[in-house]
């Protein structure tokens, strides 16, 4: 059982891809199209909204990645993805 906290969960990158990441392997930054970023410290109960620019193609997978080297697990309550006026909006809720 893993303790779920947001400690060390800072500086989030959000990307899109048509390739499913390999389970257990680190996701490299060149394996997806960067959609948006959140720079800063993440706190418990936080809502992070990332607005991605219009993309020229459709993608199947959303990748949420922390550039933190201290966090082993991401503990998120919810990730919602929707389109509004040609922009992809991603809302990330932390536990």
Briefly summarize what is shown:
The chain is mainly β.
Walk me through what this model shows.
The structure is a single chain. With 95 residues, the chain is an all-beta fold. It has one domain. Helices cover 0% and strands 48% of the residues. The protein contains no helices and 6 strands. The strands form 2 sheets. The chain has a 3-stranded antiparallel β-sheet with strand order 2-1-4, with no helix packed on it. A 3-stranded antiparallel β-sheet has the order 3-6-5, with no helix packed on it. A hairpin with a 2-residue loop joins strand 5 (76-84) and strand 6. It is globular and about 35 Å long. The two termini are 16 Å apart. The model has no long low-confidence stretch (mean pLDDT 82).
What is the strand and helix layout of this fold?
Blueprint: E1 10-17, E2 33-41, E3 47-52, E4 61-66, E5 76-84, E6 87-94
Antiparallel strand pairs: 1-2, 1-4, 3-6, 5-6
> What separation lies between the terminal Cα atoms?
16 Å
Low-confidence stretches: none
Instruction: List the secondary-structure elements in sequence, H or E.
Output: EEEEEE
Helix segment tally: 0
The main sheet comes to: 3 strands, antiparallel
Share of residues in strands: over 45%
Q: In one word, what is the shape?
A: globular
Question: What is the topology, as strand order, of the major beta sheet?
Answer: 2-1-4
Helix % is under 10%
> What's the number of structural domains?
1
> Could you report the average pLDDT, rounded to the nearest whole number?
82
Please report the total strand number as a whole number: 6
Structural class: mainly beta
Compute the CA-based radius of gyration: 13 Å
